[in-house]
Amino acid sequence: MARRDTGTDDPRVRVRPGRGSRPRTKQRPAHADAHLGMVTRIDRGHYRIRLEERGLTLDGSGDVTAMKARELGRGKVVVGDRVAVVGDVSGRAGSLARMVRVEERRTLLRRSTEDGEAAGSERPVVANADLLVVVVSVARPQPRPRMIDRYLVAAYEADMEPLLVLTKTDLADPSPLLDTYHPLGLTTLTTHLYPDGGVGAVRQALAGRVSVLAGHSGVGKSTLVNALVPGAGRATGDVNEVTGRGRHTSTSLQALELPGGGWVIDTPGVRSFGVSHVEADDLLRAFPDLAAAAQQCPRGCTHLEGARDCALDTWASQEPTASALPPACDEVPKPATAVQRRFRVGSFRRLLVPSLQAQDPTRS
Ligand SMILES: Nc1nc2c(ncn2[C@@H]2O[C@H](COP(=O)(O)OP(=O)(O)OP(=O)(O)O)[C@@H](O)[C@H]2O)c(=O)[nH]1
Ligand SMILES: [Zn+2]
Predict the structure, then answer these.
(1) Annotated binding residue at 310?
(2) Does the global pTM surpass 0.90?
(3) Whose CA is nearest to atom 28 of ligand 1?
């Protein structure tokens, strides 16, 4: 696999094991008295951290504020990072602890910036999250499938599981979207506000896990967060009657604790979700059946529509047999017919295009 930027310039913040881009450097002598916690919010260099041992703080909440120790360097620490802190962990108003270590990340959601000065560079967004909840309204604003595809690509690349939540189903029929995304084997849930429909199923899917909410402005993310986390008080905005667009009414990225355990992280203000840093191999990892077939591809195969001798075409033209999938792939939907295989390959290729496109501007 090609060398890749890990999205952090701190060699001690080793992102995702086994992807082999940077050698592990010598660890500093451990701070034996350090306490572990999760970054829940970042505000101008102040990191809000929920300690694992909540009883350490005076109020028992486990919430402290910390600054990064100089020895941590410039590497970016993001919401969801597991960090170690030393010093004042009383959580008393105005007290500051010192963040001295960032633990290895299990998953990392990133985006490539697409405009402005840093165009083409990647930014880490959230670390260690399990689920990427892609929130899409079936109407007002109209769904934008290319945008959904980008979120899915970002989730697969991050090693996160995508969950598609279709909102505002009181306004339109979700079936066309459900049909489009079925071949990818996604979990899909529908919600509608009146009367509070579908939130229970979302709550269940998120229970005990760390989830990131992503979606275009106005699709109902804040409404969903408010339903999931009583008292979250996320501001909800009106959708402009003329453009059908919302405006991002909420402003900060923060982890909110779910009543039944687990965390939900809204991503307001993350408008574009560039995926130009994603490679075909990153995506294939999320499609074990296709990955197995692609082992027969010629070296350097793009796997795109029309790619010469791409083994995905051969795979899609064959009727599956009972032993078509290796045992490790039991969770993916087993295409029962060649037609279903074709749909699956077609869906995979559709995801592949936006990411590759950005790498090669000559490809249309
Ligand atoms: N009809 C209908 N309207 C909804 C539903 N869910 C949310 N809305 C409305 O859609 C509008 C936008 O909802 P928000 O929750 O503010 O959307 P958002 O995604 O958080 O938007 P930003 O904060 O701009 O990112 C509000 O007027 C909500 O009342 C739904 O299920 N059905
Ligand atoms: Zn191929």
Answers:
(1) yes
(2) no
(3) 220
